[in-house]
Each structure stands twice: as C-alpha cells, then as structure tokens.
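quick q for whoever's on today - can somebody do inverse folding on this one?? i tried earlier but teh output was garbage lol. tokens:
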C-alpha cells in the first residue's frame, strides 16, 4: 500500500500526539479485589486521565513532566487537593512490564494492575445484580 506524503505526515503527527498526551491514562486496581467502576473510593480503582490523577477522595494535576533517562518513566510535580486540603508533591510514574503502573512517592512505591474493559463491565453488572 502506498500512501501520499500528506497522509503519511498527518498519520505521523497524529500518532506522535497520542504517544505524548496521556501516556499513563487508564484505570488501575488498588488491590486484586478492587471494583474498577468505583473511581477514587476505598475498595475501588485509581484513574489517570488527561494528566489528572484521581486517587482515593483526592485528585492531583500532573504538572511539569520530566522524562527519566533510559527508563519508561516520567517524574511529575503533583498539585493535589482532597478532603479540604491542598498539597504539592513529586511522583514518578512508570509503565510496568505487565501493562500495569508503578508509582513512586517520596518513601513509598506502589504497583497497580490495569483494569480491562471487561473488568469495568463485569463490575458494573455485578453491582446492578446485587441491588
């Protein structure tokens, strides 16, 4: 298949934008039993979307991304708010080998498994059945 030069350039620019924007976007389980439909709640999941991290009863804007040399990782300034308070911290985000997320805050390291589309649908159906 032969593509025209403008189409090839457009495809390249479009893919480059996707690779950089929202590199860590996804929904991640806090524990193996987490309900992937409950974002930001105890027993639920964490979410990253458009450089905003949604944690348990908090959210953080992920600012000033700095690539970590020779690693699939980025260091962010986290501008956070939750439960009536605000704070600033730094956090390192890294893609795990199994498509999960490794997140490091000063003194703490976490590994989260990615929720799949099936997890989100299955959790929603289970919630509706329980009601």
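ok took a stab at it. sequence:
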């Amino acid at each position: 298949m032969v593509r025209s030069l403008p189409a090839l350039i457009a495809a390249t620019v479009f893919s480059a934008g996707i690779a950089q924007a929202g590199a860590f976007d996804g929904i991640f389980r806090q524990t193996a039993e987490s309900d992937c439909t409950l974002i930001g709640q105890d027993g639920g999941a964490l979410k990253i979307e458009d450089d905003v991290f949604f944690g348990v009863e908090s959210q953080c804007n992920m600012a000033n991304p700095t690539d970590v040399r020779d690693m699939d990782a980025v260091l962010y300034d986290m501008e956070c708010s939750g439960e009536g308070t605000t704070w600033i911290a730094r956090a390192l985000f890294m893609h795990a080998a199994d498509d999960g997320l490794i997140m490091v805050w000063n003194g703490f390291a976490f590994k989260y498994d990615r929720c799949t589309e099936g997890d989100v649908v299955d959790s929603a159906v289970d919630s509706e059945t329980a009601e």
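fwiw The two ends are 53 Å apart (CA to CA). also The helical segments are 5-20, 117-130. so keep that in mind when u check it
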